[in-house]
Amino acid sequence: MENEIPKNLQRDISLISSLPCDINFHGTKLFKYQGCWYDNKTLQGILNLQRGFEPQETDIIVASFPKSGTTWLKALTVALLERSKHSSNHPLLSDNPHGLVPVLELRLYTETSKPDLTNFSSSPRLFSTHVPFHTLQEALKNSSCKVVYLWRNVKDALVSLWYFDCANLKIEEERSMLLLESMFESFCKGVSYYGPFWEHVLSYRRGSLEDPEHVLFLRYEELKTEPFVQLKKLAEFLGCPFTVEEEERGSVEEILDLCSLRNLKNLEVNKTGKTARGVDHKNFFRKGEVGDFKNYLTPEMEKKIDMIIEEKFRGTDLKL
Ligand SMILES: Nc1ncnc2c1ncn2[C@@H]1O[C@H](COP(=O)(O)OS(=O)(=O)O)[C@@H](OP(=O)(O)O)[C@H]1O
């Protein structure tokens, strides 16, 4: 039986089985690779990414810790790049942002053959990832493609993650608070899918300081408070700044409106569709409020996570 497994997979299996492992609050086995935690399949996708991804100079990669505004960033980037398209055939009207921008490590997971990106032909190519920067960097092999990172207040990301799990697993309200408590404990230990959160954010912060031309570091809360400024910053970074005529015509506002939570949530495709992995599109859209964690985390939980983040971010320019 062993002989039927391709050589690279045999190598991966033996590497993965030698890594530190732990069980998360779901009972899923997670493995620690280059400082962060992944399930078996994601990790195999990451190994394929590091080994087999062939970056192109014009590639754009949007990166985030899960539940930090990925869907919004994907939509904004697609809308920016596709802004010459007429509203009636805009890709965001017929597909969810996750269908338009594949997650590299999940797309590259394969049990049998070489990872396949052949049917991915948009130009520039637009991908997403949840892996931390040091792990991604190895896959980019010094290419000069652009990476846009979006991060968010850890407490809102955590509550958003919890909501997403409850919705996907159809967990009823009574059990949901128990899930929040165990999720919180794992999260604080750093043992969470793609976690620890702080390693993730710090890796991209370092990347953006070292190479600001290729790594842009954005914040969800700033995108909420000053969307106009942040979208223009993104356009400039990606090398497609708004022209004076476009600004006068209201193109920036148009994109912001198209990608607003309210608008995306109400599109038919996002009300009824599912991703290739069977996740209801509607679960990607909830409140999008800053500080919603106050409605769910106890003051003790808040204090504990604040202390952790304060310690981890000490000596950096990052604040909660
Ligand atoms: N367009 C838009 N504008 C503002 N906010 C938005 C938007 N789309 C999704 N959201 C909110 O983002 C949260 C989901 O995070 P992600 O998109 O990162 O999820 S995922 O990792 O891709 O599954 C989740 O946040 P919470 O509402 O706090 O749970 C979504 O509501």
UniProtKB/TrEMBL annotation:
Highest taxon of the lineage: Eukaryota
GO MF, one example: sulfotransferase activity
Sulfotransferase domain mapped to chain residues: 58-316
One Pfam family, short name: Sulfotransfer_1
Class in the EC hierarchy, top level: transferase
Segments crossing the lipid bilayer: none
Key words, A-Z: Transferase
EC number(s) reported in the record: 2.8.2.-
InterPro entries cross-referenced by the UniProt entry: P-loop_NTPase, Sulfotransferase_dom
Family as reported in the entry's similarity comment: Belongs to the sulfotransferase 1 family.
UniProt name for this protein: Sulfotransferase
